[in-house]
Amino acid sequence: MARMGSSRHLKRLAAPEFWPILRKEAKWVVKPSPGPHPVSRALPMLIIVRDILGLAKTGREARKLIAEGHFKVDGYVRRDYKFPVGLMDVIEIVDTGEFFRVVPVPVKVMFLVPITKEEASFKLCRIENKTTVKGGKLQLNLHDGKNIEVGADEGRKFKTMSTVKVSIPEYRLTDYIPVENGAMAVVIGGINVGRVGRILSISGGMRHYRKLVLLEDIASGVKFYTSLDKIIVIGTSKPEITLPITTKLGGR
């Protein structure tokens, strides 16, 4: 992917490869505004409404629908057609009561899967870092740009690269899923993107991208390796979220 820099514009040829757009149909495409997800791992609202959900034929129609407040992301109405939507975000179509979650899928990298209203009440977030804040509390820095404060004693149990389950839109911590042997994980990058497996082992290393994780694909039983920074834990004994792990998408 070409360098996008700080320009307000984005050429279609330089857009992330997983965007479902025709590269030579036009010269320019909407560029996501700064937000919870980086441009390289996000889909702008306009692309989702027009090209994925198919609720508009043109960009003008999509911008109008978004500006009128017909869509929510993680429980909040988003009227910016450039708003970046990324992994594990929950999208709601207000008028129809339909819910979707952005999940990693093979080949497409990121796509939307329909979920129930009950499942739309929470999301899973990976802990990217922990920092100490005023008052001696710990702040969990999550993959979607959000932060959650916890007590110093309580914060010791939270490990980076593990997953927390939070309610939306309140963002209240409801559960913790550590990254450890036996846990379920989904690959979010690389050639194995979208594969779901059980963690068998995690090797040591100075950086997360140097730590190798051995997983067993739950669809095929095949064992494969990936780096720790390319997975997100999604459950202990079974996935907490809906994933497209069917014979058509999984078990490669």
Give a structural overview.
With 252 residues, the chain is mostly beta strands. Helices cover 8% and strands 35% of the residues. It has helices spanning 45-52, 59-67, 152-155; strands spanning 10-11, 28-29, 43-44, 71-73, 76-77, 84-85, 90-93, 98-105, 109-115, 122-132, 138-142, 147-150, 163-167, 173-177, 184-187, 196-202, 212-217, 223-227, 231-235. The chain has a five-stranded antiparallel β-sheet with strand order 5-4-7-8-9, with no helix packed on it. The chain has a five-stranded antiparallel β-sheet with strand order 12-11-10-13-14. Helix 1 (45-52) crosses helix 2 (59-67).
**Biggest β-sheet: strands ordered side by side in the sheet:** 5-4-7-8-9
Task: List the total number of helices.
Answer: 3
Order of secondary-structure elements: EEEHHEEEEEEEEEHEEEEEEE
Please give the alpha-carbon distance between the first and last residues: 25 Å
- Residue stretches low in confidence (pLDDT < 50, at least 5 long) are 246-252
Q: What's the average pLDDT?
A: 90
- Please state the CA-atom Rg, rounded to the nearest Å: 18 Å
Range of helix content: under 10%
What profile does the largest beta sheet have? 5 strands, antiparallel
Shape: globular
Strand content: 35-45%
- Class computed from helices, strands and strand pairing: mainly beta
> Number of DSSP strands?
19
